[in-house]
Structures are given as structure tokens and as C-alpha cells.
Amino acid sequence: MKFFKKLLIVSVAVVAASGCKKLDIAPTDKFSDLTFWQVDANVYNALNNNYSLIYNSSLYFDAEALSDNAYSPSGDLNVIASGNANSQTAKFAGDWTNYYSAIKSCNIFLANIDRNTTLTAATKARLIAETRFIRAFEHFNLTKWYGDVPIVDKDITSQEAQTISRSPKAAVVKFVVDELESIVNDLPNSTNLPANENGRITKGAALALEARVLLYQGDRMADVAAICEKLMNEQGTYGAYSLEISYSALFSDPNVNKNTKESILSLQYVPTLRTWQNFWDFAPRTVGGRVSSMAPTQELVDDYIMLNGKGVKEAGSGYNESNPYINRDPRLTATVVYDRYTWVNANNTTKTIYIKPGTDPVQPGLDEYSAGSQAASATAYYWRKYYDPGALANFVSGNNLHLIRYAEILLDYAEAKQSLGQMDATVWNKTIGALRQRAGFTDAGAISYPGAANMTGIIRRERRVELAMEGLRTDDIRRWKTAETVMNGYIHGAKFSTDQNTDNGYIRTQLRKFNANRDYLWAIPAHDASLNKNLGQNPGYTN
Questions:
Q1: How far is residue 399's CA from residue 394's CA, in Å, rounded to a whole number?
Q2: Which of 150, 226, 268, 524 is least enclosed, having the fewest CB within 10 Å?
Q3: Which ranges carry the RagB/SusD domain (predicted)?
């Protein structure tokens, strides 16, 4: 953790943003001083700054509300999910700026590191590889949301930023993959990483990101499978990764969260120094939550299967609509707070969370759902995943946020093998079966290979519940081209609504609209497009 504590001590690059110059965002410090790069500590401080720009907690969590996993009642997340976004939408501009700010910082680093003459060649090669990884990750995020985007592989001037053109998405993806393949040999194996470098980019992270990038393209599944097999079978070369014993501990137990071999790459946080606070607006009010800014949906809850392996709507599942949360996938309780949930506090005391109106036996007016309330969850569900029992007041947490886990590699592998027609009992046992056993399933109907029928649906459902609240569901429904189905229609909450906005008793919240001819891409921010005519605009948007 020492490496990341330093990140908080020195902030090397504070970026300014305005107009098209977002592609040429200049730090306010004196990066250009000839003496700066000659000091080893300055080089590491610059690297630390690049790490701090990889991602942030809002980007991580907010993506859930752009999928059918979660509902946000206001702001740009609501605007986008309801199909009402345009090129003026602030989130489109804000995310564009975040990604290109990180790229700018990385390019400055790469352009100047050779001015240092005291670091060894091997050390500089590693620092360059880490920085190129970050730059590749930012380009991948850009092309994922905006499609064709400018590849900025060097530090450019403001004049160049105002004339640069977009590269085709295929070219951006190739750039990202080429970068990851080029740097892997200069990165360390995670097994050789000293404790004070925990969280730095490794060979495993480069391979895992490449697997994700190629999986999202859909046409190189053999390559995806081969990369996953390296991470699964060649751990002496690429890192010793494994599933954590406890699913919930990955996100909540600080000791496990920060030291697990399941994490391939995480956003690093340090209690009291670098923290995040999003959970304050995810938790029930009766345990200290403020408002419900993003609530789980009934659609997500319905995808958690029964302990016998059957879906809640399948014959013989044993699902009881009057007691809907019993005998369910244990990851449901680890992820979502539902009516009469037993909340375990930091001191191991418990509290029953009464959500259904009028059920709190002591204070009925404090139930966690009230139709039309802006403070309570609009779906009558709250989040438990990422609850930090060691958090400071108002849920200020120093726990890490996992960007890539070994569980994702197993899911990538299962999806790739299924796409290739190679899913069988052996692959199942290594992937879906292993994940379900870790989750707590014991019934053979849940953990044994079920045969080929509906295997694609099973894998997709498994991916959804395993990775819920980790920001990947939106990516999945967009790359599978199912967003036009699952994001058209009402989002629902629990089945006990007392107002008129119900569907068979289920709370009905937002009517979502997704235009398949437009919404698979975000708009190029209008201000940038107006300053740089070469950027153009994505179909269906106007500047």
C-alpha cells in the first residue's frame, strides 16, 4: 500500500478542461521543466498521478444505472436511460474529458521519462509499460462508448487537438490490443510483487484486459479462450490467481478486499487518505443511508436462481412469491437488500430492514419504501455489496474497487467456449460450476453440468449476478445487442406497491427507451464537435 499512499501526498497533474482542448489538456504544474524528470521521486509521482486517473468510483458504479440492473431517479443517468440524452448531455462531455485527461497525462509521461538518467533501463521499461496500459485502457473505454474516436498516442498541441480526426473503432481496438501485447513482457508477474507494490499493473492485468477487449468484439473468441487459458493454467508465468473463499468478503472485508488473489486489477484506496463515499447513497436510511441515488431492480433480483439451480419462473423451482427471497442464490443476499433483510452491522449486531410500508413493528413510518419519496429507494431495494464495516462516518470507505477479477476470466472463458461450440462438463466445472460452488450452492442441480440447452442464457445470467454492481452489465447488454430489448419498457421494483403505478403488483418506476439506431453509441460532446469539425457526430445526434 505504500506505493498508493504516495499517490495522495503529491498530485502531479491537475487538468483543466475547456472545449476541444480536452484532447490537449495541460497540467497546471511545470511538467516541462528540464530538471523535473531527472529526479527519480518526480518520475514516480508522475506515475502515481497516472494511476489516480485510471478510473473513479462514480464511473465504476454509475454504469449500473445505465443497464437493467439499477435505477437512478434523477440526473444524467436518468436522462440517458430514458432515451432523452443528446449531444449536450453533461455526462457525455464529462466522461470524454476524464478519459482524454488521463491519456494526456500518460503521453506527457512517455514523452519525458527518457530525460531521467538514473533509473535503470529495466525500471524505466516497466514504468513505460504501466503507463501504456493505462493509456490503452482509456482508449478502450472511449471506443466502447463513442465508437470511432481519435487515437492520441503522443502529446499533442492545442492546435492539433482542434483538427484531429476520429479513427475507426476497429483501428482503436487494434491499437489497444497491440499496446497490451507489446508491454506484457515488461510487466511483473503478480506472484513476484512485493507487498508495498500491491495494486500495480502486472502481466495478468494486461492479459485480462486484452481478453475483455476481444470478448467485447465478438469475433475473436478463440483468442479470448487462449488468453484465459494462460491465466488459468500458466500461473507461474502470469500470476497465481484464484477464487476467494467468500464472495461477500471480496467487497466488504478490508483484509480480503485488499489482499485477495482474485483481484487482477483494482482501484486502490487508502482509509482516511484516498476514499470513496458512494455507498452513503446506496444504503437503507435506517442504517445511515442518505438518499437512494441508485437502486437495484426487480429484473436483477429475478435473475438470482433458486438453490436447486432452477430459475424463479421455471417449473419445479420451489419459488414462493409470498416469501420470495428464501432458498435463492446466496449472492442475492450478498448484493441486494430486500424486505425483512437481516443487516449485519460492523460490530456483528443485526438489524431487520423493513421496506414494505407498515411492516416496521416499532416505527411503521420509517419503512424503507414510500411511493414517490425522493429519499427512499424507488424500487424498494437497496445495495449491500461493497458495504464496508470499517468505513468512517457517512460510509467513507478505503476499500478497493475491483476493475478486473479472476471470476470475470472464468466467465469470459465460458462465454468464449460456448461461442466456439466447445462448452462441456470440463469447461463448466472450471467456470460456472466453480463460481456457484464458491457462492454456496451444494445441490447437484445447480453445480452439475446441465447440458447444452439454453447454455448461452445460463452463462449470461451467471455473468449478470456474479458481476452485479461492478459496472459491466451495461457493457454486456450493449455488446450482445440486447439493450434494445431490456432497456425498452418499465423498470420494476418489489411486488408490494401501494400506488397506482404497478404491473401485477410490482412497483413500476421509469419508462425506459432505447433507440437501436442511435443509443448503442454516445454523442460526441457538442462543444468539442463544434470546435473541431473533423470529429463529426454519431448517427441520430445533432450538435
A1: 14
A2: 226
A3: 287-541
CA atoms of 328 and 326, how far apart (whole Å)? 5
Q: What are the Cα distances from residue 280, in Å, to 62, 336, 356, 385, 386? A: 14, 15, 21, 13, 11
Q: Which three cell numbers stand for residue 243?
A: 477464487
- In this predicted model, what pLDDT tens digit does every residue of 341-396 receive, in sequence order? 999 999 999 999 999 888 888 776 566 787 777 778 999 999 999 999 999 999 99
Dihedral of CA 471/473/476/481: which sign? negative
Spatial separation of the C-alpha atoms in residues 390 and 398, rounded to whole Å: 8
User: Residue 69 and residue 160: Cα distance in Å, rounded?
Assistant: 40
Residue 431 near residue 411 (C-beta atoms within 8 A): yes
Strands (E), 29-86: 70-71
Q: Which CATH number fits domain 44-247+523-531: 3.40.190.170, 2.40.10.120, 1.10.630.10, 1.25.40.390?
A: 1.25.40.390
Q: Is 398 exposed, middle or buried (0-12, 13-18, 19+ CB in 10 A)?
A: buried
Distance (Å, rounded) from C-alpha 26 to C-alpha 489? 43
Please list, in sequence order, all residues whose beta carbon lies within 8 angstroms of the beta carbon of residue 163, skipping any fewer than 6 positions away.
Answer: 532, 534
3-class SS at 301?
A: helix
Cα gap 220→286, rounded to integer Å: 48
pTM (whole model) above 0.85: yes
Per-residue pLDDT reduced to its tens digit, 466-507: 999 999 999 999 999 999 999 999 999 999 876 666 788 899
Q: Using the CB atoms, write b or e for 144-168: b if 16+ within 10 Å.
A: bbbbbbbbbbebbeeeebbebebbe
pLDDT digits (tens, 9 = 90+) for 88-98: 999 999 999 99
Give Cα 499 to chain centroid, integer Å.
Answer: 34
User: What average pLDDT does the structure give for the chain?
Assistant: 92
Phi, psi dihedral angles at 520 (to 5 degrees)? -75, -10
What is the location of CATH 1.25.40.390 in the chain? 44-247+523-531
The residues near 8 (Cβ < 8 Å, ≥ 6 apart) are: 270, 273, 274
For position 375, what pLDDT does the model report?
79
Cβ contacts of 306 within 8 Å, gap of 6 or more: 312, 317, 318, 319, 327, 328, 329
DSSP code, position 322:
T
The pLDDT value recorded for residue 359 is: 83
Is the alpha carbon torsion for 398, 197, 33, 528 positive or negative?
negative
Alpha carbons 497 and 506: distance in angstroms, whole number: 6
Of 117, 134, 137, 157, the residue nearest 46 (C-alpha): 134
Phi, psi of 47 (to 5 degrees): -60, -45
What are the distances in angstroms from CA 101 to CA 17, 97, 173, 471? 8, 6, 19, 21
Task: Give the span between the Cα atoms of 257 and 269, in whole angstroms.
Answer: 11
Collapsing DSSP to helix, strand or coil, 274 comes out as: strand
Handedness of CA 24, 28, 33, 36 (dihedral sign): negative
Q: Is residue 6's pLDDT more than 90?
A: no
Shortest CA distance to 506 belongs to which of 514, 497, 515, 518? 497
DSSP 8-state assignment for residue 26: P
